[in-house]
Amino acid sequence: MIQLLPNYSGAQTIYLTLQESARDYDYTHYLFKFTHRMSGEAHYFVAVTPFDNPRYTAVEVYTNTDDVNNVLLTETGYYEYEVYVQSSATNLDPDSAIAKVEQGLLYIFGVDITTTPAIAASENFVYYGN
């Protein structure tokens, strides 16, 4: 499972093994599709890959901007991700890609549901135990 922070201005790196499934195709870029499981909203971006070799693929993404190489993710929760291979550096349509090479689960961290209340006790109290 991939884990990312929402609306984060720094580069976040995803590590996958994409060449295992993509070795049979002639391609130059990876197209990612993130679909939120509750809302069904889909987000697309073409991956920036500083490392792409048979052992692993490193994908850098910023989740605070929406352009061809990054994705604006503000909704927390679970997403399904799909990775496609393609020859275009700008295509964001999976139907125009060569093939889907991987799919899985993505989790976008959110604010904790529960919080621990701060309890302050005055020094003027006397506590008795039973």
What is the number of helical segments per DSSP (H or I, 4+ residues)?
A: 1
**Whole-angstrom Rg:** 21 Å
Strand line-up in the sheet with most strands = 1-8-7-3-4
User: What is the N-to-C order of secondary-structure elements (H for helix, E for strand)?
Assistant: EEHEEEEEE
Main sheet attributes: strand count, strand direction, barrel closure? 5 strands, mixed
Q: How would you characterize this protein structure?
A:
With 130 residues, the chain is mainly beta. The protein has a single domain, classed as Immunoglobulin-like (Sandwich), CATH 2.60.40. It contains one helix and eight strands. The strands form two sheets. A five-stranded mixed sheet has the order 1-8-7-3-4. A three-stranded antiparallel sheet has the order 2-6-5, with no helix packed on it. The protein is elongated and about 75 Å long.
Q: Would you summarize the structure shown here?
A:
By secondary structure, the chain is mainly beta. 3% of the residues lie in helices and 39% in strands.
Descriptive terms for the model:
39% strand, 130 residues, 3% helix, mainly beta, three-stranded antiparallel sheet, 8 strands
Strand and helix map with partners:
Elements: E1 2-4, E2 12-16, H1 19-22, E3 29-36, E4 42-46, E5 48-52, E6 57-61, E7 77-86, E8 99-108
Parallel strand pairs: 1-8
Antiparallel strand pairs: 2-6, 3-4, 3-7, 5-6, 7-8
